[in-house]
Design a protein that fits this description.
The strands form three sheets. This protein has a two-stranded antiparallel ribbon. The protein has a two-stranded antiparallel ribbon with strand order 3-4. A two-stranded antiparallel ribbon has the order 5-6. The chain has four domains: 120 residues, no CATH class; 75 residues, no CATH class; 113 residues, no CATH class; 72 residues, Recoverin, domain 1, CATH 1.10.238. Helix 1 packs antiparallel against helix 2 and helix 13 runs antiparallel to helix 14. The chain is mainly alpha-helical and 512 residues long. It starts with 7 loop residues before the first helix and ends with a helix.
Length: 512
């Protein structure tokens, strides 16, 4: 018999089983022993030869070995069916049908296993290609950096030199841009490809690894900022990025809900988002540095940037941006209503044109007062009107002052409302943040289940522990973000001084 690819343990198991079948036949049909032995020897020899022949030609030898073992066990099944047939023909038919169905299912699974094997090999090849691309991208980036340094030296040398040298410098700058775009394109294309394959398996969120990556990147950014110049983002570029990450984060959170995975904080997700978009560590750090720099620059003057800054610092919950959307929407609707009341016979098309003129230009005092009076209670309305009037007078032209008119840019009007909203909400959450940071001592914006229970104990509502944990972490992920804590506790009502209020409002009232 040829040396077999089948293991000795497999052959021994099959042989022992066949010997037991032979013993059964011998009791009833002694003459069958020799025939059975010859049949076993012939079948094993044939299957072993076929398997050895496929050794160097088959793409999946493991599958071939499995099929060989299946055939040998099927032979045992056929012989036991033959024995049972001498005792009970009906039972023999039933057993034979069972064995045939098992063989059929095995063949179907064999096809699936081969497909899975092919996919695994494809994924390995893709990962190998990605490694090669990233190495090439790093090389291209180093080349681009060298060219930038040469460009800087040329600038120093050609101050006041002929125009042909200036043209050479321009050419070098264009080459730098081409290299950089190629780096981004290559790294993004392969990183996106592999990330999509790996996330399709269900490992969508990896909170611990992400938090460690954030800490590492923060240290690296701090070191880089001390010695390197960071690209300057315009306010428009920064706000476009903020909108992109808001939209992407909403889709990610929905995916987490569907797959019962833990959510990430906005800070965590910003790193994940940039990693998926650019792939290269150096590019990610450059972008993070640029974003941090731009946020620090523009948050004093733009409420959207201010809100984003407070979200990534775990000071305001992510859902609060929906309040901003509602303020913008309501302001526009109230302005339209005011114009319709002021001009009741104006056609709808003319009202829309006037509305566009107002939103792209100036509001008159009666218009902004009408909107504010409707949107806010008396105390807030009076405070906002004084704030808006002060801003309008400070930015009013001399001609308008002579006419006794006070106008205010619509964009300034909306921004002042948004700034009022975010400042007020920040003050409301301040007492709660103090309690939260007693538990979240590293200010990562994340609590595990045990820490959330500790927070409820600090808030003196530990009796609500079981109910609130089910609400804030319905899939038992063991990870609870600052935003989820705030959203949950704002909706949790309790009696306070004869009224039902949230625990967060209660904390604010006790402090003020």
């Amino acid at each position: 018999m040829e040396e077999s690819l089948l293991s000795m343990s497999d052959l021994e198991a099959i042989s022992n089983n066949y010997e037991q079948i032979k013993a059964l036949f011998k009791k009833k049909h002694p003459e069958a022993e020799t025939v059975l032995a010859q049949a076993f020897e012939k079948t094993v020899s044939q299957i072993t030869s076929e398997l050895n022949a496929k050794k160097n030609t088959s793409e999946n030898i493991r599958a071939e070995v499995s099929q060989a073992k299946s055939k040998l066990w099927a032979m045992c099944g056929e012989k036991i069916c033959a024995y049972i047939k001498t005792i009970d023909v009906g039972a023999s038919k039933i057993l034979l049908e069972i064995l045939n169905q098992q063989q059929k299912i095995l063949k179907e699974n064999s096809g699936s296993n081969e497909a899975m094997q092919a996919l695994e090999e494809e994924l390995i090849n893709t990962r190998r290609e990605m490694d090669q691309i990233l190495i090439a991208a790093e090389t291209l980036e180093n080349t681009a950096r060298s060219l930038r340094e040469e460009n800087a030296k040329l600038k120093d040398r050609v101050s006041g030199t002929p125009e042909d040298l200036e043209a050479q410098m321009q050419q070098l700058q264009e080459e730098n841009e081409k290299y950089l775009q190629k780096i981004i394109s290559l790294s993004k294309e392969k990183a996106d490809s592999c990330l999509s394959k790996e996330t399709s398996g269900g490992n969508y969120a990896a909170p611990k690894a992400t938090r460690e990556k954030i800490r590492e990147n923060k240290k690296s950014i701090s070191r880089n900022n001390s010695g390197l110049s960071i690209k300057d983002l315009t306010l428009k570029q920064l706000k476009e990025f903020i909108e992109e990450i808001y939209t992407s984060k909403e889709k990610f959170d929905q995916k987490c809900i569907e797959t019962h995975q833990a959510k990430e904080t906005m800070e965590e997700y910003m790193y994940s988002y940039l990693n998926q978009k650019y792939g290269l560590k150096s590019l990610i750090q450059d972008w993070i540095s640029a974003i941090v720099k731009a946020v620090e620059k523009y948050e004093p003057e733009d409420p959207d940037v201010l809100l984003f800054a407070k979200i990534i610092r775990h000071q305001i919950e992510e859902n609060y941006r929906k309040v901003f959307q509602e303020v913008r929407k309501t302001s526009l609707q109230l302005l339209k209503i005011h114009l319709k009341n002021k001009f009741p016979y104006m056609q709808e098309k003319a009202v829309k044109e006037l509305l566009n003129t107002k939103t792209e230009g100036e509001l008159e005092e009666e218009e902004w007062k009408s909107i504010v009076t409707y949107m806010y209670n008396q105390a807030d309305s009076e405070y906002l009107q004084s704030l808006l009037t002060e801003n309008a007078e400070r930015n009013s032209t001399r001609a308008l002052k002579i006419q006794g008119k006070t106008t205010l840019k619509y964009t300034n009007f909306v921004n002042l409302l948004l700034e009022f909203q975010v400042t007020g909400h920040d003050q409301l959450l301040e007492p709660f943040r103090e309690k939260f940071l007693m538990i979240d001592t590293d200010n990562q914006g994340i609590l595990i289940t045990k820490q959330f229970s500790e927070l409820l104990a600090v808030l003196d509502i530990l009796e609500e522990n079981e109910r609130l944990i089910k609400f804030v972490d319905p899939f038992d992920t063991g990870k609870i973000t600052f935003s989820d804590c705030v959203s949950t506790l704002l909706s949790h009502q309790m009696e306070y001084k004869g009224n039902f209020v949230s625990i967060i409002y209660k904390l604010y009232s006790e402090k003020h």
